[in-house]
Task: inverse folding
């Protein structure tokens, strides 16, 4: 069953992996699609298959989201196309090695793709959706946003950024009828691993999720109205405790007085 009133979903990083599965699932739900990535031929093959299977209208937009002009073009499309009702801010990369193994161009490239691009696109979509009083933004973060010691700090920092932006945007946009969800996958079997010189099979099999399971669970979290969806986390009370502790600190974080433990005691 499809719903022709769902509008168009713009998905970044839609040529493979998590983005390509979002494309499959959202087309089957009844969304028309705009697929964004660099590999136009790969997206066109996906678009042709999904159009044949679902009858949806699917457009391919070739863009390198680390390029300012390309990013601007996609942001302008989000700002101006009233048919777009959903942004899936998914394109992302991981480094080959970590912060101490890479030079500035590689670090800057990761920040451009994982931080600047989703921020600019969420801003463009958020303003447009807010004006229309409806729409949704799905931001792909990572469980590594919560576990900086477990991986490269640049990547986990970029995903913590995405999580924070999502939480902030949700608090501003949800009262105006716009849904915002941060998805935090754990290790998921996609090309991101080989693209960054890693072997996903080096993890125990029980740590690696299938990409279809990941996207189906994430969309279920979206349907349930979740702001943060962590598909691998069986005990959701663990995240709730963590988040409640964070929120409980809020009233204590800005004070005129220095905390007693930082007051120097001068010996007489
Ligand atoms: N797989 C995992 O274990 C996890 C993934 N994530 C996050 O999920 C998201 C999707 O990851 P995943 O599907 O695994 O990654 P993949 O490497 O499988 O796919 C990445 C997608 O992003 C696109 N992309 C890469 N660079 C650019 C660029 N410069 N401009 C535009 N598009 C680009 C790629 O297409 P093309 O090459 O054609 O441009 C591709 O479609 C990412 O944000 C990632 O950080 C989070 C946690 C775990
Ligand atoms: N994609 C992974 C790292 O490369 C992750 O976020 O777990």
Result:
């Amino acid at each position: 069953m499809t719903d022709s009133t769902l509008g168009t979903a713009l998905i970044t990083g839609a040529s493979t992996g998590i983005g390509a599965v979002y494309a499959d699932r959202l087309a089957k739900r009844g969304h028309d699609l705009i697929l964004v990535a660099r590999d136009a031929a790969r997206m066109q093959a996906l678009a042709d298959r999904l159009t044949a299977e679902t009858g949806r209208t699917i457009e391919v937009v070739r863009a390198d989201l680390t390029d300012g002009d390309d990013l601007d073009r996609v942001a302008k499309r989000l700002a101006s196309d009233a048919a777009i009702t959903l942004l899936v801010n998914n394109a992302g990369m991981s480094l080959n090695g970590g912060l101490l193994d890479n030079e500035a161009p590689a670090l800057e490239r990761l920040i451009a793709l994982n931080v600047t691009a989703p921020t600019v696109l969420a801003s463009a979509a958020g303003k447009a959706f807010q004006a229309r009083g409806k729409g949704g933004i799905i931001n792909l973060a990572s469980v590594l946003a919560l576990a900086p010691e477990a991986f490269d700090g640049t990547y986990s920092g970029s995903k913590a950024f995405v999580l924070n932006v999502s939480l902030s945007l949700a608090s501003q946009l949800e009262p105006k009828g716009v849904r915002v969800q941060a998805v935090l996958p754990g290790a998921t079997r996609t090309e991101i691993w080989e693209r960054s010189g890693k072997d996903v099979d080096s993890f125990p099999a029980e740590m690696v999720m299938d990409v279809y399971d990941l996207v189906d669970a994430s969309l279920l979290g979206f349907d349930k109205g979740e702001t943060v969806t962590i598909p691998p986390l069986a005990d959701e009370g663990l995240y709730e405790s963590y988040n409640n502790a964070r929120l409980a600190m809020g009233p204590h974080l800005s004070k005129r007085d220095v905390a007693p433990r930082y007051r120097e005691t001068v010996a007489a």
